[in-house]
Amino acid sequence: MKSKKFLALSLALVLILLTVAGCGKKDNGEVTPPTDNNGGKTDEAATIDKEQYLNLYLVAEPSTLDSSKGSDMYSNRVLNNVLEPLTRLEEDENQNNFLAPAGAESWEHSEDGTVWTFKIRENTWSDGVKVRAQDYEYGIKRSIDQDTASPYAWILMPIKNASKVNSGELTVDELGVKSLDDNTLEITLESATPYFEQLTYQRVMFPQRQDIVEAQGDKYGSEPDTLVYNGPFTLTSWVHNSEIVLTKNDNYWDKDTVKLQNINLKIISDQNAIYNSLANGSFDSATVNKGEWKEKFMKDENLNHIEIVNPSINFMFFNTQDKVFKNANIRKAFTIALNREELADTVFYGVPAPAYGWVPPSINIGDDEYRQVAESPIKKLADENKDPKALLIKGLEELGMDTDPSKLTVKISLGGTDQWFRTYGEYLQQTYIKTLGINFEVEQMEWPVFDGNVKKGDFQIGYMAWGADFNDPINMLNLFKSDAPAIGTGWVNERFDELITLASSEMDSAKRLEYFKEAENILLYEDAAVAPVVYPREHVFRYKYVHDLGVTPFGTQGYKYSYTEGR
Amino acid sequence: MGKYIMKRIGYMLLTLWIVVTITFFLMHSIPGDPLAHMAKNLPEQIKQNYYQKYGLDQPVIVQYGKFMKNLVTKGDLGESLRYPGRSVTETVLTNAKVSGRLGFQAIAIGITIGITLGVIAALNRNRWPDYLVMFIAILGITVPVFIIAALLQYTLSVKFELLPTTGWGKFKHTVLPTIAMCFGSIATYGRYMRSNVLEVINQDYVLTAQAKGVSPFNVVRKHVLRNAILPAITILGPQIAGIFTGSFVIERIFGIPGLGSYYITSINDRDYTMIIGTTVFYAALFVIAQLLVDLLYGVADPRIRVSKNSK
């Protein structure tokens, strides 16, 4: 039914959670495991439940467990638990992410940041074969290989020759990835890449066994018995579109830490069915995004409530080539005329948070959350311009157009045809007619049509959602770089391009922060090419007996440390 | 008779070919492609590699030629684009079995109860059993299935915790979806049977039978039911096909791994091979069901048995 809304709204979710990324510690050697995993172990052992299992769910069927193919968050969720990436983005009790060693015991990089050496840990595949550095090498190479046609290979482009290998110019042997011996993996980069660590836990860098992949051919990853596992769990059953069962992997190097014996993942997309299942205890944890259910669960004493801000953003964007919106003051007027608090409360039922910056919360720079250390350009813009209508008139003057706003007609295009988009459009209409005194039209169309119009530049204002792929501000800000624009604003700014280029290879995070702040300021405050609306937020409800279950949007610790106590 | 069936099969193949061809060109003409479900502006090279791998860079007519060749020579519908490594044929058949089990349960219960209720209503015309049955029938037709399903789920599995909310595998998982699904058939068959029985009951042969002193039960069984059931068989055809294709809504609400969801999701995902696969499957079932229904007519009513010298 609500397929279009589902599509458009879940853009954010799907995109964001395609991958997971996080805030790494800068110096690998200093990474310390969280104390609660090892510290209280003996105490836990005395009180934790005898039967260790979790009943959880996935909203959609994972596309494939072939880590080189597919890119959906659902298969990522499973893959993170059944394979051992080089690193894991774990989380402490305050939901702060930190990069922890996993498949790699330790790693170091050359002084210029271009050569990374990973020491691969002693570990065994579920079929008893030793895990070798060559498995990681093969996994990366296969992801970038042109013949694999991996939709997610682009994220690995910082690796030396990756782009040429992917276009078929060079063979995979010339890729900057090689295993020096069974325990040492060396990766050479095109140039210093400050966020390279954030790529080491992405699915396209997961280990794969060449013999298994070649034996299975195209079937690899489509059924539980078509691949082997080296993560905390193995996939023991997969009834497509129905249920997945994960079972503790006794060959896993850190198996003493893993307490759960089984995790049952039901595949269910109906929201009410999920909430009903949480309510009667069939699920141990669920994400709740409906206002009325949220209220109900808030009152339930058996449930913990965890609020998560996703690293994604819903925003309006202007066609800067349009005869009206080529003027920055007009774009600014439209940006500040919105009351984001009210919008989040009414149209979105209070689920998301109002957005005053471009880089969403939960994205880090160095050890800090970017939003905590950067100001909010939209707030500054609104504080300095109390009257959006005056800005609009000023802009119209600059364009030499009729300065009577009531003679101006502006249209927003929405890539969704359902009721939610209608409500949203009506809200905007009402707001802009009231605050700016203009005529405001709303046009709804299916997502692919909308997408096509934007590419042709056939729109005035558009609305979209975008999620970060990995945990670094550059992942959100380079969307506006003029050589590879991802959002069809037609906006070009030389200084912005320069700042993004600088930040791409600068290893010092203090300097990068300055670049990002200036770039964000140009984008939102000076030029107002886009107007952020809200940061999507999620409400996770979880029975109190569930402990240490990964919850952060970027985090990849998954079910490894989780256990139940007092079920 | 044999010749008749052969001729019908010939028409069936022709119909299928037309359906496949139209679907093939239609689905390639809708905007978007299989990478659209990622909803991200992927770099050009990544897209090119993908199109090349799955042959999407070639003209649609070439793709059509390849597809038809594989279908006719190998019976192969190809590999799903959304779920790499899974064969469409296998996916369709596996999921159709699940849908089939549920659909069969629902339709068997639906027809039995529906026909019984319809007859009861007709025989008690304008008395309370009639009103009650028609009330149920109107509810069954007007209340959307997702509301019935949600109500059942909320009362029986959340409030009273009698049955599982979602899942598949055991008989208990099929109870709620079956009840939710059979409501529609009960209503449809109930109403059909009521009006048919009312029509038949005033026929001369029924009067004759009654006059001859045939017991009321036998009048209904031998004379009324057999004649009244004919029109009901007409609506059976599409329903038989529907048994295996499942219900998107029911499957979604109860988390059932049936075929229904693929009809919707494959289109949204632009999973071309899956769109064609599900369409071929439904079209084939539909034409086969139509043939079966036509043959069933003959069983139920000797008058319309295909005569040997009809042509």
Automatic annotation (TrEMBL), chain A:
Protein keywords: Signal, Transport
Keyword Iron belongs to the record: no
Pfam families: SBP_bac_5 (PF00496)
CDD domains: PBP2_OppA
Chief localisation class: other
Listed GO CC annotations: ATP-binding cassette (ABC) transporter complex; cell envelope; periplasmic space
Molecular-function annotations in GO: peptide transmembrane transporter activity
Subcellular location: Cell envelope
Domain Solute-binding protein family as annotated: residue spans: 100-484
Cross-referenced InterPro entries: Peptide/Ni-bd, SBP_5, SBP_5_dom
Signal peptide as annotated in the record: 1-21
Family in the record: Belongs to the bacterial solute-binding protein 5 family.
Protein's name in the database: Peptide ABC transporter substrate-binding protein
Organism: Tissierella pigra
From TrEMBL, chain B:
Keywords: Cell membrane, Membrane, Transmembrane, Transmembrane helix, Transport
GO CC list: plasma membrane
GO biological process: transmembrane transport
Protein's cellular compartments: Cell membrane
Membrane topology of the entry: Multi-pass membrane protein
InterPro entries linked: BPD_transp_1_N, MetI-like, MetI-like_sf
Listed transmembrane segments: 12-30, 102-124, 131-154, 174-192, 228-254, 274-300
ABC transmembrane type-1 domain sequence ranges: 96-297
Highest taxon of the lineage: Bacteria
Protein family: Belongs to the binding-protein-dependent transport system permease family.
Protein name in the entry: ABC transporter permease
Organism in which the protein naturally occurs: Tissierella pigra
